[in-house]
Amino acid sequence: MKVKALSVMILSLLPVFVTGQNGENLKNLSLKGHDKKSDRDVTFHRIMPFSDASGYFLAVRYDDSEVTERMVWNSLKDIEFYPENLEQFWQKEGLRTRIYADLLRKGLRNDIRDIMEGYMADYLASLDAKDLFVDNYLDSRLYEILRKVYPPGNMDGRRGVRNIIVVSNLTPDAWIGPDGTMVLTTAVFTILTSEDEVLALMAQEASHMFLDHQLDNFSRMINNLFDPDLSSIITFNLEQEAEADNSAIELLRYYGKDPGVLGAVLNKMKAYAERT
């Protein structure tokens, strides 16, 4: 109970750009891009509801105009985005994927998120000191990489990636709990050979959280009359894995890194699983 209360208190202090439980308005976008169809540079300012509540449009301003215009979602296929920082990168992913549309249509669904956080709290409480690998230098390096993957704080009212723990385990594994805790096993560091590979792995896992795959799994199980648990909501299908891979590849490209690094990481994880 104390953990949940603290999480709610922290959430109330962090910047939010979904207003209201129903996610009826996204604001404070600051994303630039180029409209390839009209050959004009454009800045995205807000996502706004139509006056008749029939849907949402993008409030944009072209660089050669002083007038704010409406852009429909289908027009995004003609936009080449130019994110200038990490927060803008994830704004781009929110527009490029279906996640912002889901937030607008369904709301934040904090009731479900609170239940999932409870599962993670139980898992963390079950860990003994001997289960955790603590190394100050490793921790500092991991957090430095994490801040290249996901900005601190919340960008859209949801839980962000906030914390890292390293669990002593002989099987290479990485996952993110619904409370924003990234879990890495010690064996991961026996197969990854560079910080770029660690970044790629973190980016893939962070993408699952950003894309709300955990919440989707929880909702699907409830709708099918199954009883969800932590293991089931962090087990992703092939479509979800592909979506997370795409966002991770986009992040690698944003940093000018070889997107093939992610494939190398996933192949290493697969090869280890096949050997054992």
Structural key phrases:
276 residues; alpha+beta; 11 helices
Q: Estimate the helix proportion, in percent.
A: 40-55%
Count of alpha/pi helices: 11
* Structural class by secondary-structure content: alpha+beta
Strand order of the largest sheet: 6-5-4-3-7
Through-space gap between termini: 40 Å
Rg from C-alpha positions? 20 Å
Chain-averaged pLDDT: 88
Low-confidence parts: 1-25
Number of strands: 10
Strand content: 15-25%
Q: Assign an overall shape.
A: globular
Sheet having the most strands: 5 strands, antiparallel
User: What string gives the helices and strands in order?
Assistant: HEEEEEEEHHHHEEEHHHHHH
SSE order and pairing:
Elements: H1 2-13, E1 18-19, E2 25-26, E3 31-35, E4 40-49, E5 56-62, E6 68-71, E7 79-81, H2 86-96, H3 99-106, H4 110-126, H5 136-149, E8 163-167, E9 174-176, E10 181-185, H6 188-191, H7 195-210, H8 213-223, H9 230-233, H10 238-254, H11 260-275
Parallel strand pairs: 8-10
Antiparallel strand pairs: 1-2, 3-4, 3-7, 4-5, 5-6, 9-10
Helix pairs in contact: 5-7, 7-10, 7-11
Structure, explained:
The protein is α+β, with helices and mostly antiparallel strands. Helices cover 47% and strands 17% of the residues. It has eleven helices and ten strands. A five-stranded antiparallel beta sheet has the order 6-5-4-3-7. The chain has a three-stranded mixed beta sheet with strand order 8-10-9, covered by helices on one side. Strands 1-2 form a two-stranded antiparallel sheet. A hairpin with a 4-residue loop joins strand 9 (174-176) and strand 10. The longest helix is centred in the middle third of the chain and has 17 residues, at 110-126. The protein is globular. Mean pLDDT is 88; it is low at 1-25.
